[in-house]
Amino acid sequence: MIAPVIRGAMCTVMGFTLGVVMKEAANKEAEASLEEREAVTSKVSSHNQQLVDENRQLREEKIELEADNAHLRYQLQEMTQKLLESQAKHERMAKTLAARNAPALTSTSAGASSSSQDEKKADSKRRVPKFF
Prior knowledge:
Radius of gyration: 48 Å
Largest sheet: none
Number of helices: 2
Number of strands: 0
Order of helices and strands: HH
Oligomer: single chain
């Protein structure tokens, strides 16, 4: 009769011990899983911070490029205006020279007037082409 009691007590102790061991194993597994999650969270957080920094840097570069672009557009506009003014000045000078040379051409003979027409055609071909 003592043997079944001892056997029952031993089974109870062994069952309790097995339960404790299983509980400790589950706790260790949960701790490992938690540490793994924390490591992944840390990596993701670090990567997110890198992306935020890169995004900020790209925004700053974009602002600088937009400022450079605006400056270059302004310079192009100024240069175009100067070119148009210069072209107008050259056209006025050409008209003035043509007006000065016109009396000399009318006093020449008819053969000379045909050559002056040839000169006018050649002169018009020599003019600077209009780009704008």
